[in-house]
Design a protein that fits this description.
The chain has about 300 residues and is an alpha/beta fold. About 40% of the residues lie in helices and about 25% in strands. It has a single domain (about 5-300), classed as UDP-N-acetylmuramoyl-L-alanine:D-glutamate ligase (3-Layer(aba) Sandwich). The strands form 2 sheets. It has a 9-stranded mixed beta sheet with strand order 5-4-1-8-9-10-11-12-13, sandwiched between helices. It has a 4-stranded mixed beta sheet with strand order 3-2-6-7. This is Carbohydrate kinase.
């Protein structure tokens, strides 16, 4: 890689309620993506907001453990944001948030090879206006990836959110969204077609345990989920996103964007993303794989495919 990755978005503390017992973990979708990239050995800068409090200290230490550099986009005068995550019997998580997003001090983008934005940070105003302006002003050679990761209670109504999503998609080469995101944004069922039409080169649609489908111009590739015993789904989609972006960067896929992708390219990056997500689902909390763990997981998937 010739440069670093910049991730922009929210940091928070996940208060996880499991069977009546509460534990606290560092979280936030973009934070999880930045942390996942760092654990995969990708030089990463994370532009975010958190308070100068005990929770903020925990966030800074968590990111530092993965070698992620932090750029603060606020003064740290508000308390660190939080989300209560309730874990269901099947391991699924539902959330309640206490979060504001200002983005009053945009990060430096010189020396950045790729920018990832998503979730509350990309869609919740007033900060989202600054994030969108930053993305739309990036030089053409900077790769942009985007994951809307919709939290309906914290983002604008569906029509306004859809407009923002499509503006990001017009600049993003890679868009990842869950089937739930797609259904909320596009009840008509044409999410993938609309985002490709707006300008995205790759759209990855995830369906949890049913795997994912990667779409590009004239190409559709199904990628199975990595078989695993689910502990919880916290951070699974974010691990998928960090794996997807790492695979795109390390495989040199940006040079192929713009209609020159082959099915094998989509299958390869989708497999990396699926294995990263599967490893994360198999343990409690948002703990994405290291580069070594991901490599072992990919070898295991390859061995299984060869045996079949």
């Amino acid at each position: 890689m010739s440069g670093r990755v910049l991730v922009v978005g929210e940091s928070l503390i996940d208060v996880v309620d499991r069977d009546g017992a509460r534990t606290r973990h560092v979280g936030g979708s973009p934070l999880n993506v930045a942390f996942g990239l760092g654990r995969l050995g990708i030089p990463t800068v994370f532009a975010t907001e958190f308070g100068d409090d005990e929770d903020g200290t925990a966030i800074a230490a968590h990111l530092a453990s993965a070698g992620v550099e932090i750029e603060r986009t606020d003064a740290g005068t508000r308390p660190t944001a939080s989300a209560v995550a309730s874990i269901g019997p099947d391991g699924s998580a539902s959330y309640e948030f206490d979060l504001d997003w200002e983005f009053s001090r945009p990060p430096v983008v010189s020396g950045i090879q790729a920018v990832h934005v998503g979730s509350i940070g990309a869609l919740r105003r007033p900060g989202a206006d600054g994030v969108l302006a930053l993305v739309e002003a990036l030089p053409a050679e900077v790769l942009v990836t985007f994951d809307p990761n919709i939290r309906p209670a914290l983002v604008p109504p569906v029509a306004a959110s859809r407009e923002l999503v499509e503006r990001y998609a017009a600049r993003a080469s890679v868009v990842k969204l869950s089937d739930e995101d797609a259904g909320w944004l596009y009840p008509s069922g044409d999410a993938v077609a609309r985002l490709l039409e707006r300008g995205a080169s790759i759209v990855a649609l995830t369906r949890g345990a049913e795997g994912s489908t990667l779409h590009a111009a004239g190409l559709v590739v199904d990628v199975p989920a990595r078989p695993t015993v689910a502990v919880d789904t916290i951070g699974a989609g974010d691990a998928y996103m960090s794996g997807l972006l790492a695979a795109v960067l390390t495989a040199g896929i940006p040079t192929l964007l713009g209609g020159r992708l082959a099915p094998a390219d989509l299958a390869s990056i989708g497999r990396v993303a699926a294995v990263a997500a599967g490893i994360t689902v198999g343990r409690a909390g948002a703990v994405p794989p290291t580069a070594a763990e991901l490599e072992r997981g990919l070898r295991a998937v390859g061995a299984t495919a060869g045996a079949a």
